[in-house]
Description:
Strand order of the largest sheet: 7-13-12-11
CATH architecture: Roll
Largest sheet: 4 strands, mixed
Number of helices: 17
Oligomer: single chain
Strand content: 5-15%
Pfam family, one: CBS
CATH class: Alpha Beta
Protein name: CBS domain-containing protein
Order of helices and strands: HHEHEHEHHHHHEHEEHHEEHEEHHEHEEH
InterPro entries: AMPK_gamma/SDS23_families (IPR050511), CBS_dom (IPR000644)
Helix content: 25-40%
Structural class: alpha/beta
Mean pLDDT: 84
Keywords: CBS domain, Repeat
Amino acid sequence: xxxxxxxxxxxxxxxxxxxxxxxxxxxxxxxPQLSPTEKLNACFESILVSAFPPSSSNIVEIRxxxxxxxxxxxxxxxxxxxxxxxxxxxxxxxxWMDRYVGIVEFAGIVVWILHQSEPPSPRSPxxxxxxxxxxxxxxxxxxxxxCLGPESAATTPGNFFxxxxxxxxxxxxxxxxxxxxxxxxxxxxLEKSNSFLAMLLLLSKYKLKSLPVVDLGERKIDNIIxxxxxxxxxxxxxxxxxxxxxxxxxxxxxxxxxxxxDRVIKVYEDEPVLQAFKLMRKKRIGGIPVVExxxxxxxxxxxxxxxxxLLTAPKIYHDYRSITAKNFLSAVRSYLENHxxxxxxxxxxxxxxxxNTVKELILLLDSEKIHRIYVVDDDGNxxxxxxxxxxxxxxxxxxxxxFGDFFDGVLPxxxxxxx
Length: 419
């Protein structure tokens, strides 16, 4: 198990720590009869999302006419899971709904790859190159994978991805072909006047991994708040009274892990690596443990973002007859070590025990820059998994009728909207 570190805070001087002090000031004046959870809800409802520290870098946007390969490189270079897609044909005065096509994410890229790797079947009479097949890679439009052929992913030879990334199909597929939209809007967004509580609920109970904050005046995205950014903010607040009253509780006290060992989705090390990605997409999860054959001990983790290594470094699998989960982990780790690159996949399995505190988990997740941690027993056998969303969901609760019709007051409509 990786060591549980100390808080990375430095004299409460970071923007996140200063934000935590605002919560502390509100916490101190809350009615004493309120429970700690009710106090936190009230504190976060009183702070606007405009106060959330912006990303350390500029907002990463991808042009709708960029190729799939270019999108993969941009996401990988900036170490992000998704990015908004800007419509290159939109007029300069377009409102934000017309300015953006949607979101391109590794989850959609995974589905595109699965379509190319599996031949048509009675359940999937589509040609991999068809427009319908490409459309199925969108996020939110078709979440089911029933059309993706057999339950088990096909075994792929070591040279498959070299051939795929050299093909005209890969070079000619544009981001607009696989970018996902959110029903009648390019994506679900918040405006600056929405509350922290709304943001935290959407990132936890409603399972969104990131939330663009739209500047209606500028007609563009002002900030993107991710689950990881919230966890970093919480790590920077370690030591503050409101955080310690919650963070010093043991996992079991907060009902964690929510997903126990019998419900953990996993892949065995000798299964095709595409089976891992297929399960992630089908179950709508961001990562999956690789378990030793015939046992329950996890030997590694594969996340959605790791699909980049199938497309950016296809030659590293050339000597394998088939790309299994074990071969994938071995090849990627060797590639990263040879290129002296840093990635969570090099850290191996990041684990914890049931008697750890939430604070210890937050500090570890933040320092390792990972999205999930596996709960194991003394022998290393899986007992559950805890995600960033699980932790955020234990910080706040949704008041009855809080969102109303869910979209009302949450999706910022442009003044000239026809919706």
